[in-house]
Amino acid sequence: MKLLSVTVPCYNSEAYMRKCIDSLLVGGEDVEILIVDDGSTDRTGAIADAYAAQYPAVVKVIHKENGGHGSAVNAGLECAAGLYFKVVDSDDWVKESAYEKILETLRDITAGDSTLDMLISNFVYEKEGEAKHKVMKYRHALPQDRIFTWNEVRHFHKGQYILMHSVIFRTRLLRECGLKLPDKTFYVDNLFVFEPLPYVRNMYYLDVNFYRYYIGREGQSVNEEIMISRIDQQIKVNKIMVDYLTANMDKIGGRCRLRDYMINYLEIITVISSILLIRSGTEENLEKKHELWQYIKKKDLRLYMRLRYGVLGNSMNLPGKGGRKISVEGYKICRRFFKFN
Question: What is the CATH class of 2-215?
Answer without folding.
Answer: alpha beta
